[in-house]
Amino acid sequence: MTSTEANPVVTVPPHASRIRTFHPRRGRMTGRQLDALDRLWSAYGLTVADDPAAAPVDLAALFGRRAPIVLEIGSGMGDATAAMAAADPGRDYLAVEVHTPGIANLLGLVERLGLGNVRVARGDALDLVRALPDGSLDAVHVFFPDPWPKSRHHKRRIISPTHVALLRSRLTPGGTLHCATDWAEYAESMRETLTADPGLVDVHGGYAPRPAHRPVTKFERRALTAGRPVFDLVHRRA
Description:
Blueprint: E1 9-12, H1 31-44, E2 45-50, H2 59-63, E3 69-73, H3 79-87, E4 92-97, H4 100-113, E5 118-122, H5 125-130, E6 137-143, H6 161-170, E7 171-181, H7 184-196, E8 200-202, H8 218-225, E9 231-237
Parallel strand pairs: 1-2, 2-5, 3-4, 3-6, 4-5, 6-7
Antiparallel strand pairs: 7-9, 8-9
Pathway: tRNA modification; N(7)-methylguanine-tRNA biosynthesis
Keywords: Methyltransferase, S-adenosyl-L-methionine, Transferase, tRNA processing
Binding site for substrate: 150, 182, 217-220
């Protein structure tokens, strides 16, 4: 497996106070997760930090090669990311998450499966995106983000016009923004927001068929068991 410089830090310019799009979560880690975090973070981890001396992250240096990059926003426990990366060795997967047990779990999967094409970032996904060069991503995946169901919290949703414009700017022409949610109202809001972006093209003309490459996670199974349909949306940068 390819290792990288010990615990690199992505630095981003100072910003005015921003509304967070995620709930900071705490969770107890297992001994296996603690061990994985301790041993593997220096090789596969990336800290997203706020620093005035900003520079775009060098993705080729991060992965040790030049290959198409997939950004996984909110990778959770990492099972889906690991499965997709294992099935897609020609592309590199950069997963960003704030939940430390999930980060540690994904690191363990990276080692167990021998995944040289995965790196794991800890921090705010939008700060990471701001630190990436324009046109540097082949795909962005936003699977089951927090729906922020209360009306007064809708401003916290990651799929909003301003955030979508930022994500689109980091896609290479022809690159795809793929979103999925089990929250029907949020799905419709996503569809309207993505369709309204002038630089994106709706690949399927509405909700997309469930793609075979997106693994079914425990979270999705719970949603389906509860009777909540899952909506996929795939848009391409023009």
